[in-house]
Amino acid sequence: MLRANDPNLHSWIQISATSEFPIQNLPFGIFSVGDQDARVGVAIGDYILDLCVLGQEGLFELLDIDPTVFNRSFLNDFIALGQPIWRAVRERISVLLRNDNSEIRDNDALMHRCLVKQVDAHMHLPVKISNYTDFHTSLESATNVGLLFRDPENGLTPNWKHLPVGYHGRASSIVVSGTPIHRPKGQIKFKNSPLPTFMPTQQLDFELEIGFITGTNTALGTSISTAEAEEHIFGLVLFNDWSARDIQRWEQLPLGPFLGKSFASSISPWVVTLDALDSFRVAGSLQTPAVLPYLEYTGNKHLDINLKVYLQTSPEPSALISQTNTQYLYWTMNQLLAHQTSNGCNIEVGDLYASGTISGSEPDSYGSLLELTWNGSKPILLPNGTIRTYLEDGDTLIFKGYAEHNSVRVGFGELRTKILPAI
Amino acid sequence: MLRANDPNLHSWIQISATSEFPIQNLPFGIFSVGDQDARVGVAIGDYILDLCVLGQEGLFELLDIDPTVFNRSFLNDFIALGQPIWRAVRERISVLLRNDNSEIRDNDALMHRCLVKQVDAHMHLPVKISNYTDFHTSLESATNVGLLFRDPENGLTPNWKHLPVGYHGRASSIVVSGTPIHRPKGQIKFKNSPLPTFMPTQQLDFELEIGFITGTNTALGTSISTAEAEEHIFGLVLFNDWSARDIQRWEQLPLGPFLGKSFASSISPWVVTLDALDSFRVAGSLQTPAVLPYLEYTGNKHLDINLKVYLQTSPEPSALISQTNTQYLYWTMNQLLAHQTSNGCNIEVGDLYASGTISGSEPDSYGSLLELTWNGSKPILLPNGTIRTYLEDGDTLIFKGYAEHNSVRVGFGELRTKILPAI
After folding, report:
1. Residue B61 assigned ligand-binding role
2. In which pathway does this enzyme or protein participate (chains A, B) (predicted)?
3. Alpha helices, DSSP H only, in B98-182?
4. Quick one: CA torsion of B129, B257, B399, B338, rounded to 10 degrees?
5. Where are the domains of chain B?
6. Architecture of domain A132-420 in CATH?
7. A255, B165 Cβ separation under 8 angstroms
8. Using an 8 Å Cβ cutoff, are A68 and A341 in contact?
């Protein structure tokens, strides 16, 4: 076990037992306060630790890194330093925050400069996304969507259990939690009309996903094995692959999703390192039929992360509309990276690889409204009496995700997005 | 007409009448000589004009730009300066190279420093590609591929004439002409086997395409009209969307092309500005049925660019295997950009938007081996007696493209790629 993950560690900062940001987490993000430049920070309890200040004060001096790497508006330059540095920095931060360490604790001026309350900070997109692939790794969701979208008799395509099905997504339109989304317009083809209409989507949906960020540049022509994959994975984010189902349905044949998805995707501000999630590994179910050798792996590569979706129909309180867990995904992160690079495709620092919609086997565990409402045929009744099939203007959608074990909760915070009317 | 396009202009540099780089072209690229840093250059006849040197010598002083923008390993920072600067720089270069201008012509030392023979230079990827979309805008190719890949009865999907069908491609694996490509491996499903096999592709194909590079960052939620589109387009490149047809066929359902394409794509080293192609505009055929209002446009938006594909089966001379023209494309560049952004998707400096395979109506004008050999059923017989269905290791494929009018030929040079064995 990594020392920084020890459940017995405690910080000199007061942290609630239900906080998603205990000393065992230490997720990285980009924040600013007021007019100050955006910079790298680490979440700890209700605070953000300002790594830019720590760098200026020489607190990373023994690590042999350029401390100005924390004075950037994206994590990419830090991530590019590689796994040994990610680990050394996280371990150093863990040491600085432990209740037996006095370097910050007993230096009032420094403490004042390097700790910012999260409520006072503005969070930015943590990573400049270089390339973005969206997979569809949940057997339950792939079956549901196949039944609803493609073939009412047979949800899964013949290839689905042999390879992680995926497609290239649009990187430019990925935004951080808190960024409102305008309802997109697009071509919609109604069954009773011979021609398509250009109008705001009437089927605005979310997709509950988790994504991972890579931290290396590999050479074109080379592949990453399942055994090597984790050296390339910096951390994970909550991810919402917004979807306009009516636009998607009309455009999708023959080349796949395009404008029905590219209007926006949202990620959580905090990137939880794969190291911090190490304590929450579990075994997955046996993959049957057996996968090809390049997709075989050993060890516990699934993660036990609880995911919840809340819908707030302004100005009402939010209602839980789905809950599921990443451990039920069919394909693992290391299989995704091995498959992505099996043809020699290179990866880059800041790539995002997302899981696709995560659905469990029960209807209240489905990760999209398409599935939850069975394409609108079973509307959701919220506790306040409101009915929803798809999202309406003014709605706010909130994803939460955390792992918990030995009374330690490691989470992502919120991914929160408000829907605005079409422009 | 832009002054720099005047067919009566002549340079003090001797340029062959059949050169694709007369003073009316002035395409931009990134080059280096020996150990020198990569920098921005412009092709003129058999030479490259070193803009980095011209900047150092103050020859762009009146343009109010930072001349170090030419001392970069990608064109992106220059492109980001916007259309008025692209035009001013091209006009300034045109003036400097005209036979009546003495600033370089009569300065032997400067001429020596700023002119490099193309044969002595190494060309680099001209643009750091931010996002890449591949459309499929040729009616003939879409019909052919649909018949071969999807439905032997009906090539076109119902949406095809209503919107430019496209998908997001992989940006990281786009390389410049001269970069050899290793035959990719992947999952292939043979008809006589119940399970897929992981092996080198047996159906390695090219796709003859043209692409355009955008030069602006737009805001998420905004759209670009067909009338505004050209302000955002810096220039065009030859583009080869390498495809492994057997890998593509097995993986493509339900989310579209993925690893069958992402192992590599190739672009020409020279970006020919949209301004330089202004003299070669032609009207397209009427689009029937009429397009939706957001896709309507006025003016001549098609380009008359001759395209040729040569195959060299080492060490034989190359043979012409296809020739076609961009003017037959169904959808125009301004329609592609209007469609891409119609849902509010933002564009970025350095985005690449490609045409998809360009095929004419005759079998010798098809832009891929899939079509030329009708999926291998009609092998090509080369003049040297060699037979090809798909590409073999050691083959070299060459795209050429140029427009010609009033004895002025404006071209892209070569896009040349050699196929190496699988690793």
Report:
1. no
2. Amino-acid degradation; L-phenylalanine degradation; acetoacetate and fumarate from L-phenylalanine: step 6/6
3. 108-114, 139-149
4. -60
5. 3-123, 132-420
6. Alpha-Beta Complex (3.90)
7. yes
8. no
Structure tokens at B68: 């170090």
What would the mean pLDDT of B135-144 be, rounded to a whole number? 96
Q: Are B187 and B251 in contact (CB under 8 A)?
A: yes
Comparing CB atoms, the residue among B130, B198, B294 nearest residue A198 is B294
DSSP secondary structure letter of residue B406: T
Instruction: Write out the two tokens for A217.
Output: 């540049």
Of A166, A186, A220, Cβ closest to residue B173: A220
Which tokens belong to A160?
């689905």
ipTM: 0.97
Instruction: Quote the mean pLDDT of chain A.
Output: 97
Cis before A363? omega within 30: no
Q: What mean pLDDT is predicted for residues B383-404?
A: 96
Give the DSSP H or E segment for A95. Answer: helix A83-97
Tokens at A151, concatenated: 């073939």
Taking only the tens place, the pLDDT of each residue in A169-209 is 999 999 999 999 999 999 999 999 999 999 999 999 999 99
Task: Using CA coordinates, name the residue in chain A closest to B345.
Answer: A263
Q: Can you say whether residue A73 is alpha, beta or left, with left for phi > 0 and alpha for psi between -120 and 50 degrees? A: alpha
CA dist., res. B270 & res. B279, Å (int): 18
- Residue A209, annotated ligand binder? yes
Phi, psi values for residue B307, rounded to 5° = -125, 140
Q: A238: which 2 tokens?
A: 């909550």
* Nearest beta carbon to residue A184 from set B136, B257, B344: B344
Region B138-157: what's the mean pLDDT?
Answer: 91
pLDDT tens column, A43-95: 999 999 999 999 999 999 999 899 999 999 999 999 999 999 999 999 999 99
Task: Say if residue A265 carries a ligand binding annotation.
Answer: yes
Q: How confident is the model at residue B153 (pLDDT cuts 50, 70, 90)?
A: confident
Q: What does the DSSP 8-state code read for residue A279?
A: G
Domain A3-123 is in which class?
mainly beta
Which of A195, A258, A294 is closest, CB to CB, to B166?
Answer: A258
pLDDT of residue B88: 97
Q: Which residues from chain A sit within 8 angstroms of residue B175, using beta carbons?
A: 220
* Alpha carbon distance A154, A163 (integer Å): 18
Q: Is residue A121 a contact partner of residue A33, using CB atoms and an 8 Å limit?
A: yes
Interface test with B, best of A128, A168, A331 (most B CBs within 10 A): A168
Alpha helices of A341-385 — where are they, by DSSP H? Answer: 369-372
Residue B252: list chain A partners with CB under 8 A: 254
pLDDT score, position B217: 98
To the question of whether residue B193 is assigned a binding role by annotation, the answer is no
d(CA B4, CA B408): 12
Three-class DSSP category at B116: strand
Tally the residues of chain B.
Answer: 423
Q: Annotated binding residue at A201?
A: no
Q: Do residues A236 and A332 make contact, with C-beta atoms less than 8 angstroms apart?
A: no
The identity of residue B293, as a single letter, is P
Please report residues of B whose CB lies closer than 8 A to that of A129.
none
Q: Give the span between the Cα atoms of B308 and B322, in whole angstroms.
A: 6
Contact B327, B360 (CB under 8 A): no
* Res. B38 pLDDT band, cuts 50 70 90: very high
Q: Model-level pTM?
A: 0.97
Q: How close is the nearest chain A Cα to the Cα of B360, in Å? A: 21
Q: What is the pLDDT of residue B150?
A: 83
Please choose, from the candidates B372, B341, B283, B349, the residue with its C-alpha nearest in 3D space to the C-alpha of residue B79: B349
Q: How many of the other CB atoms lie within 10 Å of CB of A49?
A: 21
Residues of chain B neighbouring A130 (CB-CB closer than 8 A): 171-172
Q: What is the DSSP letter of A5?
A: G
Nearest CA-CA partner of A207 in A5, A413, A391: A391
